User: Fold these one by one.
Assistant:
Number 1:
Amino acid sequence: MRAILIIDPGPMATVQDLGRFGFRDKGVPMSGAMDQQALRIGNLLVGNPVGAACIEITLGGFRARFQSRVHFAVTGPPAGASLNGSPLSAWECCFAEKDSVIELYAPEFGSRSCLSIQGGIDVPPVMGSRSTFLRGCLGGFHGRPLQQGDSLDLGDPVGKPVYEFPEGLIPPYSGRPVLRALPGPQDDCLSAKGLETFFTSEFEVSSRSDRMGSVMSGPMIEHKRGGDIISDGTCPGAVQVPGGGLPVILGNDCQTTGGYVKAATVIAADLPLAGQLRPGLGVRFERVNFDQARLAYLKNEYLIRNFYEKHGKSS
Amino acid sequence: MSLCGDESGAYAEPRVLLCGETAISVEFGDKIDLKINRKVRHLYKSFKAAPYPGILDINPTYCSLFIRYDPLVCSLERLLLIIEEKLDVEDAAGPDCDRIIDIPVCYESEFALDIRQVADFHGMHTGKVIELHTAPVYHVYMIGFILGFPYLGELDHRLHTPRKKDPRKTVAAGSVGIAGRQTGIYPVESPGGWQIIGITPVRIFDPARKEPFLLEMGDTIRFKAITRDEFHALSTR
């Protein structure tokens, strides 16, 4: 039986893939791995299709037993990991004998590790995705976080593992991340002073942070006329600034519509870093323009695609 | 693109707002207004009818259509041309009231947790709240918040009530609420700050159903008051 048995899920572990698309008009959030770069590269390393489901482990504390021989990879920010007590390297394909126990520790400064296993986590897709949407109790493993004793089936392996270090494809994880952000869609609702505060101050991630969003503390951002708008569409990476003046970076489980001013949007290339925020981290926003944002996106996508194609896979 | 609009708050030309480099919001006005919402629906329906490669998700709201795209497959320039083309085609959305859906609601006090407060706030009897809430035909302006939550208008102005100061940690699935000038239905159990005035036995979201979502933007609905016995008879939860 190809499966993984959860011995200890740690603070939170969920099944995630690239996310749920095509249902945003019905109020269904994207969900999916908060660090999609870690997911995509992890899947490549173990020979999975890019969208196979992984286990997203929040703040370590995770222990599980492989019920069969498997290839697997741990990706994400620097964090300790071991297999049967021996240290493991991240961002490379590893092999485990049946009954091996894997252990993942909390990252030094990020928050989420991604455990990709050859064949992927085989839970039934809901609306086209295996991702867990916790607030909707939807998808993943029975729509909930993993618990001790859960046994997750693995899919059949479809591709060969890749034994090459993904040089240049690991996000620049940092204890003081700088997130590049494009002003808008409602930057015109901030005063000039408010916009300057936003792009020049350091904010601290507060304890009110989860997969829906990270609430920041720091200097108040000034609006022109309050922080409310007629509710419009939202997306992961959007930075809301409600009336109270403190920014909230929306995460993958964010609600699909929102009634607060969105001052800026973290660019796609930096979303893996935004997906790694954890309480206490200092964060800055660097202003970029549309062309810079697009260039960063295209560059990253080409790098990933090249790596995939080099190994005869489609991304 | 001009910002000059008419009284309804509709812009003469839609505004395109950048939501990062992988999404835009096409905004038709800046008021909650049926005319503006119809323009949003028109573009939404047009994309639904003829999807484009590279467009990952679309989300219609009160005044704007949110479009998520992959710049590697579809550039912003190309997307804007597609939108322009679609806007030139009239009436792709068809008539506004495709269907009228009746939603039975039990307004009895054990479900209508806030109906007394709402009645007191407006100095009326709870019976009047029910009468005013069941009178209009409501338009589904948008679906948002969580799993099929419909934002409905127009609520009778005599029922406009602020949200609760302290949102509830859990609101039961099917609860019917009021917030400001809006009314809506909680599809699943979730936290919420709306004033709860009733509950429907109808599952507006059911993942096991072939079409999990009962409502979509542009639908019209009516609330019909039912008794607690009828509620229990109809309830499948």
Number 2:
Amino acid sequence: MKHLFLLSFFLITNLIFSQKINVKGSWTLTLKASDISLAGYDYNSFYESSNKETTIDIKPVPSSKYNKKFMRFKVYVNKEDINWDKDLKLLAKVSSTSHGNSTGTIYQEITNYSNSFFETIGEQKKIPIQYRIEGLSVTLPAEDYSTEIIYTVLNI
Amino acid sequence: MKILTILLSLVVFVVKGQSNEASRYATFKLKEIALLNIEPSNTSVILNLESPKLPGEKMTTKAVNNTKWINFTSSLTNKSSSRNISIKIEDGEIPPGILLKIKTDSYQGNGKGKLGSNSNIITLSKKSQTIVSDIGGAYTGHGLYNGYKLTYLLDIDNYKLLNMDNSETLTISLTLTDF
């Protein structure tokens, strides 16, 4: 009984001091004959999205003045493939350093396992994310390749 | 016990109330592609028959720029069959007594993928003939020494029909087609 009480208290404490994430913007890239510079060549070795293809909002819960300013967060990223090829490599970076972050500004691969992406502090709006895809080739079957990019935020 | 129930209800409430995970999608749409190029592209093949130096000897062929390289990029869906490269005389007539042949060497270069396989020497005509078959998703590399090397050859079929003052210009077409 005592243990159950403590466990519940621990869970509540952790969850009350929680956070909320909101993500906007998916990346779609279409490659066709006009993307090949000359017959005999493959596609480019990589393509990049716009520097704010996805934006992330992070909101502390409860949304007190203190939390909005000082609560620290860590964002994790992973992907769940819908139709993917092992030769494709998807990378992401935070294309800004003005969102309470000093990490995540160098491209890192998004894998099927959750990896630490960046850390930030306080409430943040429109953290810009840029993507890069490597491995697209005419040697792959011509079809749609798609993956779901999952962002998870935890307070630290 | 009552307190525990309240606490557990609070946990459920808090869990339901927060969303610390969100997702978006990345999608890459690759379209079918069929691009073909001949290198060098700015030179004509010139083939001349020259008289023998001594009576009784065979006539000789003098060729200028008689080699070309086929470069291609091909992208196919899984449902598509493979592609071929075919060749034919589009315009013009071969002078009487002469055969125009083409030799296709096996692939070489910096390309990758299902690059197909070459045919043997064929005699060109106005009928389309396959010189490279079974091409899938592939790229040959661009420029000279990438792809399939073509060599144009003249062969005398019938000496009686030869007219040494004759000259003809032919247009040869190559097509990358779905099989």
